[in-house]
């Protein structure tokens, strides 16, 4: 059986399913489709499924033409019907893994997908979980569900964990050329997982277990969270010391070994860095161990929006104005440059804090036409022509297409959290990490 499955992968005759068609799932669909596989996308969101079947793309990293071609040539179709799994050879699970209100992992999406998979009673299936999760999820949560339903993992069904490392908006590294870590429950599992993914990804990095693969992802993102936390704390120290943190960081980054550049900012955003470390901290709590680095970095990073408010307040104060009653314009609400994703964006915290201090807030983001705010849709300004009317302008995201020279020329007061105005001494510009 194993050799016939392998042949299907190599000949690209295997039928692939991708479950969850978002930032992770849709680019994966496109890689499988580009490699010549027949791909079925499964998602609970009917609107997304309908749009995809019309060839309409909603993920910035996916090429519109490539998607249209995949749909019109019949190599890709989407559905909300999980029963199609009976005709598939492999499924990759890319559903959300958020935190619940208590900041504990919410793995309900993974569980509901597994309930659908076992319902289909289709054996000879490779299942690869790609959603970020705590170490032990694949073995403790998924494996028993399969075994209880009569599947023999490693013989009739194959189970792996392979974390997705996609960096939305990265022009150099995408799904295809980012090495992919993969751990299987048995040797057969890892061998099949590796072989399938080798058809679409340049380099596969097998590890000895799903737990190791789960931990790799959490190490990577915890590393980022902690180092960003350090950069944020050094920025605050530099403000107090009267030193330019950006100059310090750039100079430190000239060291060719033993240093990696991280920069401060208004806080953490996106679906990964603010969330993933909590998965690890939660798991460690169940083992009666406190993940101290994670907690400290979380504390520093989540306080950055408050620090931005302090900087805005200082600037207004100089003009004998207060937050209460001032008009504040936010430049950029996406969590990082040149993307349209506002999930967990610190800009949303800054807006909330400003509004609770009585400021009137507007935003401008060429990538984000609108945001949901207190149950209503708030639209981005379409231009900056009235920028001089705002008491303060806070730059939170430095999208490449924004005319920062125009902002500098016309705004009354600027709070620059992204080092847009490097080394600038203009009194109307307050730079984070400079004071
Ligand atoms: N976005 C990133 O940059 C990134 C990077 C690496 C890893 N991840 C991880 O990948 C996973 C997916 O993240 P994403 O950013 O693609 O999320 P997303 O919200 O963009 O997409 C998830 C999709 O899953 C669908 N879905 C929800 N429940 C489902 C169900 N029960 N069955 C089928 N589909 C369902 C949603 O409708 C949505 O289309 C998460 O675990 C995330 O932590 C994300």
Structure description:
The protein is elongated and about 75 Å long. By secondary structure, it is an alpha/beta fold. β5, α6 and β6 form a beta-alpha-beta unit. The chain is built from 13 helices and 15 strands. The strands form three sheets. An eight-stranded mixed β-sheet has the order 3-2-1-4-5-6-7-8, sandwiched between helices. A five-stranded parallel β-sheet has the order 10-9-13-14-15, covered by helices on one side. The model has no long low-confidence stretch (mean pLDDT 96). α8 runs parallel beside α11. The protein folds into two domains: 213 residues, Rossmann fold (3-Layer(aba) Sandwich), CATH 3.40.50; 191 residues, NAD(P)-binding Rossmann-like Domain (Rossmann fold). 45% of the residues are buried. It binds nicotinamide-adenine-dinucleotide (NAD). The site of nicotinamide-adenine-dinucleotide has 26 residues, from α5.
